[in-house]
Every structure is written in C-alpha cells, then in structure tokens.
Amino acid sequence: MGRLAMSGEDNLLKLVEADESDDHDYRLQNQVGFVLRKAHQRHVSIFAAHIGDLTPPQFAALAKLYDIGETSQNQLGTLIAMDAATVKGVIDRLKARGLVDLTKHEVDKRRLLVNLTPEGRQAIERLIPLARAITEETLAPLTAKEAATFLRLLAKLA
Amino acid sequence: MGRLAMSGEDNLLKLVEADESDDHDYRLQNQVGFVLRKAHQRHVSIFAAHIGDLTPPQFAALAKLYDIGETSQNQLGTLIAMDAATVKGVIDRLKARGLVDLTKHEVDKRRLLVNLTPEGRQAIERLIPLARAITEETLAPLTAKEAATFLRLLAKLA
DNA sequence: CTGATATCATTTGCATACGAATGAATTTGA
DNA sequence: TCAAATTCATTCGTATGCAAATGATATCAG
C-alpha cells in the first residue's frame, strides 16, 4: 500500500524532491474515510427522499424493536450501534411521537425497557417496503454482482 | 433484488402469511445504509486514535487547501462535500486555532477567501503520513485485492 | 456482609450535518 | 438598463455522535 496515485515515471524526481512531492501525492478523494463519508451522505439523502418523517437512526430503532421485541434502552443501543447518549435522544423523540413507550424494569431498577406502541408497529410495517426500495436505489450504481461483492466487503470493514 | 434473506423453502407458507412474514424478513444488518453507517463510525474512531486534535472534516479542509491553495469558503465546501452551513463551522474552528486565515475577495465582495497559514501548512504536512496510516488501518480487514475492489465500488456509490 | 467494581441511564459540552430563511452582491435577460 | 434570478455567506433549528462526569443500582470478592 502506501502511495495511491504515483505513476511509474518521474521516480528519480520523486526521490530528489522527496517530502514535498510525497505530501502532494496525497489525494483526499482516494482516501477510504472521505469516500465512505460521501457514500453515507448520499444514502441519507436517498432515505430522506423516500421517508421524510423519520431519520435512519430512528428507523433503525423501530426496525430492531420490531425484530426482537422489548429490550432495555442500552441493549437497543448496542444492537443498532449507538452509544448511550445518542440512543437516549433517538428514543426520546420516538416516545414524543408515540411510536415507542418506556417502562421501568421491575427487577433491575436501573433498566429502562423500550417497546413499540401499536402506532409504532403500524409505522414500521408501513415503512419496511420503502426501506427495501431505499437499499435498492442506494445500490443502483452497481450491478447485482457488484452489489453483492460490495456488501460482503463492507460488512468486513464494519 | 428484493428480499435479501429468504431461503428457498417455505415458499408456500410465505405466500399464505404474506405480509407479516415479508416484514420479518427485513434484517437491518443487511441494509447497505446501516452497514455504511457502522463502517463510517469505525473509520472515525480509527482516525481519532491517530489524530486526536483534529476531526476528519477539519483534516479534509486542510488537505484540500494544501492541494489547491486559496479558494472561497463555498467552493471549498463543494470540494470536500459539505454544505455552506457545515463548512462555516469547520472553517471558524480552524481559524480560531490559527490554521487558516480569511480574507475578503477584492472583486467579488460576496466571497470569503480561505487560505492555510504557515502553521496550517506545517500541520497538514505533519498529518498526511498519519492519514496514510489511517487509510491502511481502516482497510486492514481486507486483502490488498479486496481493498482495491472495495474502493472502486465505493467510489461508484459516492 | 460489605467495600470495590461494574452496569444502566442521564446530563453536559462540543462537532458535524442539513433544511430553511435571510441579506448582500453579482449576473442574466428582456 | 434594470428587474429577476443566481450566488455567497450567515443564522436558526433540529438531529445525530461521542467523550466525560455523575448518580443510582446491582454484582462480586474477600
């Protein structure tokens, strides 16, 4: 690995100018972090175009609750990759909209149990078909084979 | 495309139970947006471990200025994929730390020109080698061949 | 049993990220 | 030329995202 944009020629010059040329070989556009950030931005934009009244993290919380049922706020955060501070805000907003409700764990008084309300269940069932379309549109620049490869490699990175 | 996690068996049952089974086939972990978000989180974490005193967006701004020299704030935002409101905050913080300076465009009085200070130049030259290491570590779960494939497909998505 | 640890949740502070509204300056087009 | 449209920058509001500190509760070890 190392230099990503260095042609085969001009090696002598590169050696002579060493540091400065080396730095200017660095291209932001080729760095995985920068492109990852842009790809994520594009996906969020596609998501918003299909589902305007819910953010991807809010959707993730509902979808996970629909999948596994009642859990503690912290456990839910672990499952959808949010730290405690972030998940609290997401759940608070879902609660304010009546999509989840919160109850204290009877045995372990530290825990806050989160569950879908009937409205929340209805919402996620309505949204899942849209989410399938969002995934498809996000992957649309790739062929089916490329998409499969991409998802496999992305999963190894995440 | 469509259903991502449906086995070949149970098709009759699926048809009978239709909607409910269909919804429960949806797995958040397989959705490109969710995995993209997690991969991005992991990269930011690796970045922070190597470069603690600068965020990836701040680094991107410095790297781009180092690459192209003075530009307007808006143009810089376009080049590093940030909207006007976001880039303003990033530049304000870099200015507060003395890494960039701002001057008014003499001809077009709407524009705010951004440039590296000597300290900013020194900082980015020091950081670029670390950024190369960050890219390598982020891609470490992949073989060299996989990494090349991944970057090619990711670029098509972004 | 009890002091040390660990876990769950909350709060605060800071940094993206973006939509929408606003104001200033420039460019366009009839 | 001059009104309309566009561009650049700023501000406000809302929503992640994470580190660090705090408080309440639970578990563990001696």
Helix/strand layout:
The structure is a homodimer of 158-residue chains.
Chain A: H1 11-24, H2 32-50, H3 56-68, E1 71-72, H4 73-79, H5 84-96, E2 100-104, E3 112-116, H6 118-138, H7 144-157
Antiparallel strand pairs in A: 1-3, 2-3
Helix pairs in contact in A: 2-6, 3-6, 4-5
Chain B binds a DNA duplex (30 and 30 nucleotides) through residues 41, 44-45, 48, 55-58, 72-75, 82-86, 88-90, 93, 108-112.
Identify the notable features of this structure and list them briefly:
158 residues; homodimer; mainly alpha; DNA-binding
How is the biggest beta sheet of chain A arranged?
Answer: 3 strands, antiparallel
Query: Which percent range fits the helix content of chain A?
Result: 55-70%
Shape of chain A: globular
Helical run tally of chain A = 7
Q: Which band does the percent of strand residues of chain A land in?
A: 5-15%
Mean pLDDT of chain A: 89
Biggest interface pair, residues each?
A-B, 57 and 59 residues
List low-confidence stretches of chain A: 1-19
Number of strands of chain A: 3
The rounded distance between the terminal residues' Cα atoms of chain A is 21 Å
* Radius of gyration computed on alpha carbons of chain A: 22 Å
What structural class do you assign from the helix and strand content of chain A?
A: mainly alpha
Quaternary structure state of the chains depicted? homodimer
- Helix/strand order of chain A, N-terminal first: HHHEHHEEHH
- Please state how the strands of the largest beta sheet of chain A are arranged side by side: 1-3-2
